[in-house]
Design a protein that fits this description.
This protein has about 50 residues and is an all-alpha fold. The protein contains two helices and no strands.
């Protein structure tokens, strides 16, 4: 699936949200997978200055 999301979140902010520790195992696996996709370029965050 190709999707383009427009957001004002930085890569660092996105990572900090994904690294929150109050998660059950399924949520943690999902967030780990999302981080892996950011790292390998499957998910690209667009930097914008406001």
């Amino acid at each position: 699936m190709k999707a383009k999301l427009h957001s004002r979140i930085s890569v660092d902010s996105y990572r900090s949200v994904l690294m929150l520790q109050e998660l059950d195992d399924q949520d943690q696996r999902l967030r780990t997978d999302l981080l892996r996709q950011v790292d390998n370029g499957s998910i690209k965050l667009i930097h914008s200055c406001a």
